[in-house]
Amino acid sequence: MAAGWRVARLAGVHDETATARTLVLDVPGWPGHLAGQHVDLQLTAEDGYQAQRSYSLSAPARGDRIELTVQRVPDGEVSPYLTEVLTIGDPIEVRGPVGGWFVWRPADPAPVLLIAGGAGIVPLMAMVRTRRAEGSRTPFRLLYSLRTPADLYYAEELRRPPAGDAGADVTLLHTRSGPPGSSRIPARLNAEDVERHGWPPEFEPACYVCGPTGFVEAAADILTKLGHDPRRVRTERFGAGGG
């Protein structure tokens, strides 16, 4: 096994949606990680062929145990195996943590604005959970754009946040169909959404945007046009290829 890779084993699974699953991995010797970082996973076939993919960590580490959420990509090479074939106790190679710019540290006192598009919620959820685990009182606001209510990741936590979690405000924005009684017409994220549910620029929030490339570019453009300092807008994109 190449340097930097560790053999992890699947310790648990939890379905988030019909096509997304959270994997709980035991990784002996895990050094810990920051909210927003990701890992590389490697699969090796019997004939020696290898495939690697990167996945964001969705929660703070618990000792040697980590969590990541995988969206199954139709005809993908790795994600169908991870979400449909990998079973409890199976091994998989892990390398990481990776990344040091798109991260949130509890010591940072600035208010935080999180903007997620679809599966882009994963690293941002790690930030929400880290804030909670550390007992931080840093004000958080999350704007989560998703197609339909059925596409919501981490539904239990985001629809019914734990008691006493004041300051972590969640706004769900649907693009195709919303829940019964919703007053917002389904539409893509727009400047009115960000202005109404985000932090004003004069608060100098730390802004984190994650999702498909087009979504991230549009959200970052909205933030800067509303007056947010581009230096305080951190973005992470993912493409539809691979899987």
TrEMBL record:
Cofactor: FAD
Signal sequence range: none
Recorded superkingdom: Bacteria
InterPro entries, alphabetized: Cbr1-like_FAD-bd_dom, FAD-bd_FR_type, FNR_nucleotide-bd, MRET, OxRdtase_FAD/NAD-bd, Riboflavin_synthase-like_b-brl
Keywords annotated in UniProt: 2Fe-2S, Iron, Iron-sulfur, Metal-binding
Name of a matching Pfam family: FAD_binding_6
Designated name of the protein: Ferredoxin reductase
Organism: Streptacidiphilus cavernicola
